[in-house]
Amino acid sequence: MTCDRARSLLLETPEGLQRAALWLHLRLCRTCRREAGRMRTLHAAVEGLPRFEPSADLFPAVLAIPQQAGRPQAARKERLNVTRLAYVLTLIIAVTLLAGGILTRSAAPDGATLLLNAAQAMDEVDTIHVHGYSLTFITRPWGAVGSKGSYDHWLSPEGIRRQWFDHDGDLTWSTYTNVQSGLHWRYCPSMRLVWTASIGVDEAREAAAYSAKRYLDGQIMIDENVDQMGFELIATRRERRDGTEIYVVEVDTGGGRWQYDIDAATGRLLALHQYGTPESGRPLLGETQFEYGVALPEGALDFRVPEGWTVKEGVKEENGTLVPAVLPGEDIALDDPRLLAAQERLAHANDVRLDAEMGEASWSEAEQAYLNVADPGGPLAYTEPWRKASEILAIMYVRSGRYQEALDILPAPWATNGWPGLVRAWCFDALGERAEAVKIYRKLERGHGSSAEWGALGLEQPTSPRLLEITAEPGEVLLSPAPGWRASAHRSPDPFRPEAAIDGDRIVRWAANASAEGPGQESGDWFELDFGESTKVTRVVLDHQGGMRPWASDWPRGIEARFTTNGRTWRSAQVSPAGPMRPATVTFDWPQKVRAIRFELTKAHSPEWWSIHEIYVFGSSH
Amino acid sequence: MSTTAREMAAAKSAAKQQAVFERLARRFYTGVYNYLCWICRDAALAEDLTQETFMQVWHHLADMRDRKAARTWVYRIARNEFLQHRRRTGGDTVAFEDCDLDDRADPQALSPQHNLEREELQAAVRLAVNRLTDAHREVIVLHNLEGLSLRQIAHVLDVPIGTVKSRRAKAFHALRDSLGKEVRSGDL
Fold this sequence. Notes:
The complex is a heterodimer. Among the domains of chain A are: 4-46, no CATH class; 361-457, no CATH class; 476-620, Jelly Rolls, CATH 2.60.120.260. Helix content of chain A is 18%, strand content 31%. Chain A contains eleven helices and 29 strands. In chain A, strands 20, 21, 23, 24, 25, 26, 27 and 29 form an eight-stranded antiparallel beta sheet that branches. Chain A has a six-stranded mixed beta sheet with strand order 5-4-3-2-1-13, with helices on one face. Chain A has a five-stranded antiparallel beta sheet with strand order 6-7-8-9-10, covered by helices on one side. In chain A, α6 crosses α10 (337-348) and α7 (111-120) packs across α10 (337-348). Chain A is elongated. By secondary structure, chain B is mainly alpha-helical. In chain B, α1 (3-40) packs antiparallel against α2, α1 packs across α3 (70-89) and α6 packs across α7 (161-179). The termini of chain B are far apart. At the A-B interface, α3, α4, α5 and α6 of A face α1, α2, α4, α5 and α7 of B.
């Protein structure tokens, strides 16, 4: 705008009317109109300028860049992950230093040293846990003892703990050596319970407590269950056998009497005798002799000491025992390139999880769906859902008894078939009875530190297993269970009795050929439900899952059904094929009078059993 | 994740990145070349810088968070490439007139007389644009030729949008003053 009149107009016009005055001026003033036209022309001329066209070779050359330049650089997100990891590690170490009071103890190692050496030892470890300022190495299973097993090193500034887990994931034995004195046993800073009582104490009562607590490793973390364990000290006495002084400790486990023989000099458990109680009338159930190290191959107990660590042997020399201990060799700075390299290795290791707990982790019961996981006699298969748990504790539950019996802790990574995966354990109680139910406790890390994300671990987040829901359709009414009904089968192995399928309890079940070595499903196996009188039925559903075992695989592979209305003549009924989430179902087109219905397998299948947790019989509501 | 799964995931990721790159190249390579031609005034150099630009695009593809901002991201890389080149060479570029022009306009669309006038005007405008300062010419090219919004240009140049507006206004005033009476209302 070059018109002088327009400028003066803006100055003379009252505020608020300036826009209108200018608009009017621009349309009336010839100079301004000409100027505006020139500018429009200029814009159009600029926009009409020709574009430079590249040569025909340029585009192919650009397209060939990915082939010539190799892979693109890592995303900034990756770099952020490294940054995040470094931040988390720094935080861990800082909190560790503070929590452990390590700042005030110059002789103690810092978390960085532990971490560095953890990484250095990674060639033979699967998992590293950072608990407070303790580290747990979980080594790869090695086959020297048993077919499968795993060996757990737990390092802390105070000492080293070793645990051996057998192929079932059960804790077989555990040692803990205190670096400083070699004799005093204590809690680890993370509050994960190790052997708690003193070894070689004078009081047998304390030794008994030690024995009980050792067995209850982990269980004691669940306060409400401690009292329910029912462990009760019966008697202690001192005996001398073959020149060795022995503490004898008798404990009532609630379902039996256990006698511990403990070496008074070393505090080692020499033998465990298990007796039945007078109530059960059982004789001696078993006798276990503990021979430390004898059954192990040479070197099995030797911890592979990472470079930079000093091995101090003979801390228990006064007892005639040599147990290697590990002391940190040096302190390193947080920005030490070796530490950074170690962190880098941790960040990119696909088979290493870095879990952090800043203190006492919480135990929480698994979701309701996982309570009372019933698989009597079979292997307990527990799938860790949604979140990862640092530890899993399975507690068998014998409903008809008066006690609960704890299995061992089933530490997750090596007791699972990969992570997340199945925890497997055989469910026998102290008396050799099969458990009827199992409770799962999981030690969650949420809110107690940080851990790698699922994606960062290269794992897919597991989804919650689905459970069968069998409900009445509109117009139907559930008839089962009802008094007077009678179930029978070709076999009635105890405790998988046919009645279990019509008792209204989805936990217990009937199972054909129920034995670990059994043939599984066989053609001709049958199960019959007799209603006692003619009953109008619309649908019959065989629940093979029980609502408790989403992984259940013992549905019938081939099945047919027949029913009778008078007990003499039998007619065929159509059975829908079964599957993991599809129970075998007989559906009648209209309410059918049925006196009894019989199911029979038409196809053999091994090794799955044929199980019926509950039969759901529906009738018409009209 | 097994090795095979990792390899598959990596291959999938690589294929995806290549597809993204190809889309970017198809969409922007002529514009980038045109922009570079205008600011460096050397066709051969513009081709080299275009390749360098897309080399950087490929290398940093994973950093491109916002697909919607791909256009400004690519142009910004192109500008950085040009600036780096100028720093290395001390601003040694050939004269604008030496650039090979390939007019995409259809000469048959207008009458011969109109074409002549139009070509004369365009030649004058082109020279006038060329005489603008780099900062002003850049805004004109990005806005009026490449169609970037003023906000996008602000992202490319890393300056406030107000600066872009003022540069554009000053550029057109400079063009008007430079062209004088050669530009008349209704010439185009």
